[in-house]
Write a structure and sequence with these properties.
The structure is a single chain. By secondary structure, this protein is mostly helical. Helices cover about 75% and strands about 0% of the residues. Helix 1 crosses helix 5 and helix 5 runs antiparallel to helix 10. This is Dimethyl sulfoxide reductase subunit C. Pfam families: DmsC. InterPro entries: DmsC.
């Protein structure tokens, strides 16, 4: 599958950005310690960086990647790449500084706060790339919703694993619940655009929903205080990422040019 690098890019980067934001907020709410924040933000940025690296395998000529910046302001893809770079640099610096406790911690906390704003911008930029009038299966509000939900579901589960148990699990549960609740409407919209392509993704969507149901249960248990086992939380995070990867494969399989 030619789009497989983009599958990993869009899921892993949004998972990393979502986890970064939730860990920062959890720290401000005194739900995670300074040490947990440093370690958590660093791990979130490693996940983000892994996704960013995956995207380079989609480039036919990586040496020309800088040309993508020429459309900043008018091209959604250029804006997405800029947001990726800015969040990656600022988020990476703040996470590394807090992890190593180098220099003035207030400076790195301020950088982390700026990175949160850049992370939100990045999450919003990604679905804009796929709002194409010529691709009716993509050019709808569900495209934005399913991609933002990736940041909630995966980011929440990852944040819970890294220490922000209650807040991360809450967002993970909300994301999973919304994703399951809107599934019928999403599939109906896809079927109206291309019944053949929608039906061909039935297996991918079924697998995604099954895993999201498990994630929902585990996150709800964590929210009410019945689950605080790091291994089980890590399993929830892995299932969340696997579920969104399955859904993203289906999404890219839906590509076709409307006539």
């Amino acid at each position: 599958m030619h789009e497989l690098p983009l599958v990993f890019f869009t899921v892993l980067t949004q998972a990393g950005a979502g986890a970064f934001i939730l860990l920062y907020v959890a720290h401000k709410l005194s739900q995670v310690s300074d040490r947990q924040l440093g370690v958590g933000l660093f791990c979130a940025m490693v996940l983000f960086a892994l996704g960013a690296v995956c995207s380079t395998f989609h480039l036919g000529m990586p040496m020309r990647a800088l040309n993508a910046f020429s459309g900043i302001g008018r091209s959604p893809m250029s804006n997405e790449i800029l947001a990726t770079a800015l969040f990656g640099v600022v988020g990476g610096l703040s996470a590394l500084g807090l992890l190593l406790k180098k220099g003035e911690s207030g400076l790195f906390n301020a950088l982390a706060g700026l990175a949160v704003l850049l992370g939100i911008a990045f999450i919003a930029m990604v679905p804009m790339v796929y709002q194409l009038d010529t691709v009716s299966t993509w050019g709808n509000s569900y495209t934005t919703l399913v991609m933002v939900l990736t940041a909630l579901v995966c980011g929440g589960a990852v944040a819970a694993t890294l220490g922000a148990v209650r807040l991360g699990a809450l967002f993970g549960a909300v994301g999973a619940a919304v994703s399951l609740a809107m599934r019928t409407g999403y599939i109906d919209t896809l079927t109206a655009a291309s019944e053949r392509l929608a039906q061909a993704q039935e297996t991918w969507f079924t697998v995604q929903m099954a895993m999201l149901a498990v994630v929902l249960v585990l996150c709800l248990m964590a929210v009410i205080g019945r689950l605080n086992n790091r291994g089980v939380l890590a399993l929830a995070a892995l299932l969340a990422i696997a579920a969104e990867l399955a859904g993203r494969v289906a999404f890219y399989n839906l590509w076709f040019i409307s006539m």
